[in-house]
What we know:
- By secondary structure, the protein is mainly alpha-helical.
- The chain has one domain.
- It has three helices and no strands.
Amino acid sequence: MRNAVLNAVNNALRKKNKRFIELYKKKQEKADKEYNENAIKVILEIEERKGKSWVDRVYQATGVKKPQEKVGE
């Protein structure tokens, strides 16, 4: 509540063309556990059948270097 009051005062006294500060921070929606569990199962099944070649294709398509695993740490 204190943050909301502080933000309201700052918004009332803000300079021209300065961005408005939200009074309340937006809460993240709760994740759908069933959906996530099913997605993980599907990914694990695909990895068993085809391996992890799909990961290499994602890195190649995005143009990002594949991270190297550090040995000995």
